[in-house]
Amino acid sequence: MLCCFDIDIMNESIENNNISPDAPFSDPKPEPTPDPAPQPATQEEATTPITPSPSPHNPRPRARRPYPPTWSILLIILGVVIIIGVGAGALLSMQSGRPTGGADSLGVNKLSTFDSPPTLPPDLSVVEENNTPIITVHPERINITGRAFNLVPVTEEKGRWPIPARANDTAVWLYGTVVNYVIGVPYSETTTSLLGGLTGSDHITLTLDNGAALIFGSPQAQRIATDDTGPMAQRQPGLTIVVLGGDQATRLIVKARYLPEESTESEGQKVDGLSIEVLKSGVVEEAGDTRRFVVEYEVNNEGKTPADPTFFDLMLEDGEGQRYPINASVTTQGEHGVLQAPIATGESAQGSAGYLIPRDVEPPITWIFRADPTSTEAARFVLPYQSPPPRPPEPRVELTSAFADGTRDVIVINGVLHNDGASPLTVTREDISLTSSQGASSLQASTPLAPWTVEAGGQMNFEVQFSRPTGVDKVLFGLVGFTFEIEGLP
Q1: What pLDDT band is residue 320 in, cutting at 50, 70 and 90?
Q2: Contacts of 213 (CB under 8 A, 6+ apart)
């Protein structure tokens, strides 16, 4: 670096002395001049750095900073790359275990096997109310188009999901999943073929320990990443079957929809010395946006003391976890009415429980019975419930303009079609008409092209063109039952 500095200064010195950089450094011959000229510099003098005096035209040269060696620059770059890589790896490791779709992390990435069913902790609960555990029903058996599996409840064990050591007729139920039941079946070619071959018309039956049979339909098989727990979210009623094990990069699952209309009630359950049985249930009256729902039940006192029905806690729960208290007015519409008299030991009594529920309530409907509100034992009955069909479409028409186009000899009508109902509204060419004293005019064009479909709660702008009748000054325009008189035609 020092050599470069000397040469730069030397070149500048030569230029300041009007010496060409290409000229030789020895024995220069001066040109004759009238005045005495200075002696030419010798080679030794020419190579000596000359420091010119500072001037506006000749700034003082500045020394260049020494650059670091190339190997040190490469070492710095390598260190930065390593730091970025370590940070990115840490971020990915933190996110890889997160669930999708709002599901809680279920820890299903790793598997452990068992020869005998694992023992669940005695204080483990599925549902709590006011921090008090409530005894709930558990699934005991699943039947997949004729192939039956006995279910064993399991919980994750240090990030592992236990499965049977041998792929036989045993599957596992992930303890606590009572809205969207999550079932795990051990991997085998037979099981994979069975689940992958399900069609939309197949049904899957899940039998609970209280005898109720839940029916699921419209199964759909799909493959997901092994760490994706989104399909196992407990947001809406359903069934999720997961294939556990195997060496494939993705996991096969089956999602099925709950069919409350095909499910069956249980025979009976016992809580606090009482045997409870649901006799029948259903909607007794439609009331606008609500429905009146009544449960007819029987209580058999098998305990040692009389049972007081005034302490009974009778609740109705929908598929979203919303609970509805007993309604006195609806209860009177039941066959047996309110159960009030004490039930002696060994006797039975029948009563009604009525509820006011939304018309669009989300199934399944579960009836919950407790001997008193403080009891930790509860009987839960999944009741058959048929959701009502959506309300029909309700069309509404408003016209914005109507005029006669003499150039094309047509009548042009513009307007807005509304659908205030709860079902889609379909309009065909037969629903659009224009009549006069001369008879019906033909529809020449429509925008959009008919047929039209207006979704529930939606609206659509339209334009129609009819052939213009001759010799009339007014016409009648008809659309989905609405009639408008258009007069003043030229």
Answers
A1: confident
A2: 205, 206, 207, 263, 264
Tokens at 14, concatenated: 């030569």
Residue 290 — very low, low, confident or very high, per pLDDT cuts 50/70/90? very high
Q: What's the pLDDT score for residue 167?
A: 57
Q: How many Å apart are CA 274 and CA 252, to the nearest integer?
A: 44
Q: Give all strands of the β-sheet with 379-383 in edge-to-edge order.
A: 323-325, 313-317, 365-370, 379-383
| Terminal-to-terminal C-alpha distance of the chain | 100
Q: What is the set of domains in the chain, with CATH numbers?
A: 1-27+38-53 (no CATH), 110-262 (2.40.260.10), 269-383 (2.60.40.1240), 395-487 (2.60.120.570)
Q: Is 138 exposed, middle or buried (0-12, 13-18, 19+ CB in 10 A)?
A: middle
Q: How many CA atoms lie within 13 A of 446 on its CB side?
A: 20
Which of 279, 352, 354, 363 is CA-nearest to residue 317?
363
Query: Residue 388 — pLDDT band, cuts 50, 70, 90?
Result: confident
- Burial environment of residue 27 by CB neighbours within 10 A (0 to 12, 13 to 18, 19 or more): exposed
Q: Which amino acid is at 12?
A: E
Q: Give the integer Cα–Cα distance in Å for 236 and 139.
A: 17
